[in-house]
Amino acid sequence: MSRVRQRDSKDERISASRSSCISGLVFEVPLHLTGFFYPVFHERAEHTGSLGAGLVIEPGLKCVVDEGEGVWFGGEKIDSGPAAHIYAELGRGFSINLTGSCIPGAGYAFSASSSIAVAACFALAGRINTLDAALKAHVSEVKHGTGLGDVLSIWDGFGLALRKSPGAPGIGEVESIKINEEVVVLTSELGKLPTRDLLSIHLEKIIEAGKKAYRLFLENPNLELFLTLSNSFSRALGLVDEKVEEIVKPVSSMLLGWYVKKRVLVLVAERRDAAEVAKNIGSYLPVVRVFRPGEVEWRRYLETIPATRRS
């Protein structure tokens, strides 16, 4: 029995040492707004995913590691879902505090971004490697029914991310299309719609409309066509109603395009028009958020953290 206690004590000391090494760590994981997609199911979760395209946006979820326990978002503890599952599975040992301009369950890929953030913390603590962290985030998303392709898009993509083959990072493939830096993405929430509900209610329409949009997009991938196809996909799923049309109509001439991702209204405009668009939309909806397209692969910043902290 004494040997067991000694081993446990040693493991606890190692865990505490690793945790203290990343306490105070700060990094950010982008969010993702899918425009159109269709699911590709496989008997193995790491090969399950989707084909489609979406906007990788910043600012995303800011992640701050501290002493203590638990995963928190905006001061509220996350007790369930993929991020909480990863945290418990990998052994806890520090607190992870997330903040960001979004709400869970609306369509910002919060579950994917938070799962990546939590898994990345354990990679930085030396408990797993970075690719395993991405794999765990994807598998946890699939098993919880909270997403199919968001982890891959966020992990490997930037700007306009086209998922060319399904699956987790290291298995799936993403092609990124850079977006002009003068373009901004404005959003507002129309409510909440969990991914599991979206798939169960609209699966046949998603497959039909998603395959059509994907096929057309591959012919000439660009932002204008993406926005046109995403709008058509939103309509095919019944996500655009008269209320949404009424909200968008006054600003339509200032937009490059728009669509609805689950219950997030997504409007893309040039920076010079953003304030006027936000003002008009704000007269209908209580909160208007402004993002920029992700311009670089966020992971390269993450990968510099261990070297910087060692120096």
Give a short synopsis of this structure.
Helix content is 44%, strand content 26%. By secondary structure, the protein is of the alpha+beta class.
Low-confidence stretches: 1-18
Strand content: 25-35%
Instruction: Give the helices and strands as they follow along the chain.
Output: HEEEEHEHHHEEEHHHEEHEH
Overall geometric form:
globular
Architecture per CATH nomenclature, i.e. the level-2 architecture of the largest domain: 2-Layer Sandwich
Oligomer: single chain
- Alpha-beta content class: alpha+beta
Count of discrete alpha- or pi-helical segments spanning 4 or more residues: 10
Which percent range fits the helix content?
Answer: 40-55%
The strand count comes to: 11
How many domains?
2
Evaluate the radius of gyration: 20 Å
**Largest sheet composition:** 11 strands, mixed
Distance between the termini: 41 Å
CATH topology of the largest domain: Ribosomal Protein S5, domain 2
Q: Could you tell me the mean pLDDT? A: 90
Output the CATH class name of the largest domain: Alpha Beta
Features of the shown structure:
single chain, 311 residues, alpha+beta, Ribosomal Protein S5, domain 2, Alpha-Beta Plaits, 2 domains, eleven-stranded mixed sheet, 10 helices, 44% helix, disordered N terminus
